[in-house]
Amino acid sequence: MKYKIVADSSANMEHLDGIDFASVPLTIQVGNKSYVDNAALDVPDMMRNLREYKGKTSTACPSVGDWYNAFGDADIVVGTSITSGLSGCFNSARLAAKEYTRDNPDKKVFILDSLSTGPEMQLIVEKYAEYIKEGFSFDQLRGSIMSYAKKTRLLFSLERLENFAKNGRVSPAVAKVVGLLGIRVVGRASDEGTLEPTYKVRGEKKALSKLLEYMQELGFQGGKVRISHSYNENAAHNFADMLRQAFPGCDIQIRLNRGLCCYYAEEGGVLVGFEV
Ligand code: X90
What is the CA radius of gyration of the chain? Predict the structure, then answer.
């Protein structure tokens, strides 16, 4: 039995140790330039271009064919996609799964709609990998990951929501307040998989303490934490220190956002995926 894990590029993952893995890239459109969010993408260069470009920018999800190809020739494919509440990505994945199993009736595919993105997807992928190493069957993988994902959450602290607003994924009024100097929005991925801006705070220090408070309010008790950021190493490390102080021994990892998450979280943005 050949197993494979797939996730779109919003999970910020390029490979996985010991298990066949494929990242399915979204694309970022800046004028007539198209950036494919794969391992070869020069994210700082894209961000520089975005800062300078005054025209329209947008993103696009992978096609059905992109997902289909990512499945390779695996017998059991499991994966996850960015929230269907904000992207057509899950729909492409769903259709690809249908085609793949129609063409290969002996093979099986399950793609979970994460209703989230970034580091929460990372937690889901890591959990799939653990289950596969434990020898789970397809049905066990599907059932267990659905229960697991009920106990994972995503919070964020963002300095700007301009790209969200430009693409009609958040109201311009909310984006305007967050755009003010020093104002950050601390919020979460809602149960429907949309952006829920919960608090507005002034300054990064306040944003980080709010994040920690919010995590605890949502039931965090020291489980796994995955942090990703858009070129805000300081905030990510300070936040990890705060977490370790409150929850000694807590399993924390920090990574940089790749293209898609950088585009929407914008420079300075911090995403936190965690278990409750
Ligand atoms: O289909 C497409 O073009 C992609 C659209 C993606 C829109 C959402 C991207 C979110 C990236 C930003 C902060 C976290 C928000 C969480 C909401 C679920 C990360």
Answer: 18
Evaluate: CB of 265 within 6 angstroms of ligand 1.
yes
How confident is the model at residue 252, as a pLDDT? 98
158 CB neighbour count, 10 Å cutoff: 27
Q: Whose CA is nearest to atom 11 of ligand 1?
A: 261
The first and second tokens of residue 240, run together, are 């990890």
**pLDDT value at position 179?**
85
Contact 121 CB / ligand 1 (< 6 Å): no
- Report pLDDT digits (tens) over 166-217: 899 998 988 998 888 899 999 999 999 999 999 999 999 999 999 999 999 9
Give this prediction's pTM: 0.98
Residue 181's pLDDT is what?
85
> Which residues of the chain are under the pLDDT cut of 70?
none
Return the ligand 1 atom nearest residue 115 CA.
Answer: 18
Per-residue pLDDT at 233: 98
Residue 86 Cβ inside 6 Å of ligand 1? The answer reads: yes
Q: How far apart are CA 260 and CA 26, in angstroms?
A: 7
Name the residue with the closest Cα to ligand 1, atom 19: 261
**What's the pLDDT at 95?**
98
> For the chain, how far is it from start to end, CA to CA, in angstroms?
33
Residue 260 Cα distances to 4, 46, 83, angstroms: 23, 11, 13
Q: Which two tokens stand for residue 276?
A: 């409750």
| Closest residue by CA, ligand 1 atom 7 | 86
What is the Å distance from ligand 1's center to 193 Cα?
9
- 92 C-alpha vs ligand 1 centroid, how far in Å? 16
